[in-house]
Specification:
Layout (H helix, E strand, L loop, with lengths): L1 H20 L13 H17 L7 H15 L10 E5 L6 E4 L3 E5 H6 L3 H16 L2 H7 L6 H16 L3 H7 L3 H8 L3 H17 L5 H13 L9 H5 L4 H12 L10 H14 L2 H13 L6 H14 L3 H14 L4 H13 L3 H14 L4 H13 L3 H12 L6 H13 L3 H14 L3 H12 L6 H26 L2
Parallel strand pairs: 1-3
Antiparallel strand pairs: 2-3
Length: 478
């Protein structure tokens, strides 16, 4: 039901994007779909994604995937494309490229990949879809008379990758045949993404053989999936010829042993501990450690400690954390877990001291920054939280999460104009300028703020209104 409602909202919202954001597809049906228009469409779809509960806004996991993705993208031949990587909480094995350089990764893909090179191979393939502008070409080829189908396609690009139920949802709205016929990448697109992706993978220092190996394992998995092929195969049709071509391309390459990074193993353990039922997660890591069945002992101990926190067994969690520290050098992921353990165990002062110490060593680590500010707010120290967040904003001015924390700090201090202005700045950096304008309007009507603050907010409102109008005009240009 939630998925069908979400599809309804997207199908209502995205035609407006196409009305305002796409080139005229009538007389210029074959005109180029410009990178700017592509980015605007991607931003519009991302607004819908961020509003859905499946959007997995975990700073550590997102930073890891973004770091890996940008490492690969930097090796993409001749690309000047900006990329944004994000996570979807879904056990389906999937990754997907949206217009404008947005690349989504299901948590199920991270948990299923048996090596970092396998995960990198899927990301490299998606990056290649973006750099070769496969989605843009597909949209630009449509005609004006097919605008409804294109709108459905934009929704389906999102939903079919978020859930394997998307086809059923599309059927409910009479769009199934139109969407499905246009959704899947062509075989030529897939072969090109394979070829370019292999180049990216090798240039970035990963094992290029991982791509064929992972795709082959996915294809074999279709025999045991009760509901059919994994989502990735639904939108990226695999053939024996494709896999054979990948194997042929990598056969002559020298053997390269590529070790997984510690971050890859720790993030996988974190997702397992966080997303599985708590006691099942505890049992999984306990069994793996007892029987020595693990790819990384450090990651297994991290996962067990994180799982024990969830079941409130803090004494055992501390023991596992101590054992983990003996296995790995100082690491921000481990330090963040240690601070979370202290707070969960009812030791807020120790937690705050832990965060301060961690930030001295890792001053730019986002999870530590957010968690420290959040802990200050939870311990009713909004003045300290505000001072800390504003100090960070002096260095990182485009982080919407910091503005959301700033808004919460102002709300706790009953400073309503400042609260809504901070919320507006968060929305503006999330690409939702219209919502930013609305927040400032609410703030200016709150009756709060002095003359300087009101004048500054009015000036900012004028800037955002002008930007909103410019974006709308720009989107209407053919």
């Amino acid at each position: 039901m939630r998925l069908r409602l979400f599809l309804t909202l997207l199908l209502l919202a995205i035609p407006r994007v196409f009305a305002d954001g796409l080139p005229d597809l009538g007389e210029v049906a074959q005109a180029s779909f410009s990178p700017l228009q592509e980015r605007r469409l991607g931003e519009s779809i991302m607004r819908e994604i961020r509003a859905d509960r499946s959007y997995f806004d975990d700073a550590e996991a997102t930073d890891y995937v973004s770091g890996l993705g940008n490492r690969l993208a930097s090796r993409s031949p001749g690309s000047r494309q900006d990329f944004d990587f994000f996570l979807i909480q879904d056990r389906q094995i999937n990754a997907f490229a949206l217009p404008g350089g947005f690349v989504g990764v299901n948590t199920g893909l991270l948990l299923t990949a048996q090596s970092e090179s396998e995960l990198a191979s899927v990301l490299a393939h998606e990056i290649a879809h973006v750099t070769q502008r496969h989605i843009a070409r597909m949209i630009a080829q449509q005609k004006q008379s097919q605008i409804t189908s294109i709108a459905a396609l934009a929704a389906a690009i999102l939903l079919s990758r978020v859930s394997s139920q998307a086809a059923e949802a599309a059927v409910a709205f009479g769009q199934a045949s139109a969407v499905q016929s246009q959704l899947n990448f062509t075989r030529d697109n897939e072969r090109e993404a394979d070829r370019v992706g292999l180049q990216i993978l090798e240039q970035a220092g990963f094992d290029p053989r991982a791509m064929a190996g992972f795709f082959e394992r996915l294809q074999r998995a279709t025999r045991i999936y009760e509901t059919g092929a994994p989502s990735y195969l639904r939108t990226h049709p695999l053939t024996f010829e494709r896999i054979a071509d990948l194997q042929s391309r990598t056969q002559s390459l020298p053997y390269r042993q590529v070790l997984d990074s510690l971050e890859f193993q720790l993030i996988r353990a974190k997702l397992k501990a966080q997303l599985d039922p708590p006691r099942e997660a505890v049992a999984f890591f306990e069994e793996g450690l007892a029987e020595r069945k693990f790819l990384s002992e450090a990651a297994s101990r991290y996962g067990l400690a994180a799982s024990l926190i969830r079941v409130k067994d803090y004494a055992r969690a501390r023991k596992e954390l101590e054992a983990l520290r003996k296995l790995v050098p100082s690491n921000p992921i481990v330090e963040t877990l240690a601070c979370a353990l202290a707070y969960s165990a009812g030791e807020p002062a120790a937690a705050l001291a832990c965060y301060r110490e961690g930030l001295r060593t890792y001053p730019t680590y986002r999870a530590l920054i957010y968690d420290y500010a959040n802990t200050l707010l939870q311990t009713r120290q909004p003045d300290a939280a505000l001072q800390f967040v504003e100090g960070r904003l002096q260095v990182i001015a485009d982080d919407y999460r910091l503005y959301l924390l700033q808004a919460r700090s102002y709300a706790a201090l009953n400073k309503r104009l400042a609260q809504h202005r901070a919320q507006a700045e968060a929305y503006a950096r999330m690409g939702n300028v219209t919502a930013a304008v609305e927040q400032l309007q609410i703030g200016l009507k709150s009756g709060d703020g002095d003359f300087y603050q009101l004048s500054s907010a009015e000036a900012r409102l004028k800037e955002l209104r002008q930007l909103d109008e410019e974006l709308r005009r720009e989107a209407k240009r053919p």
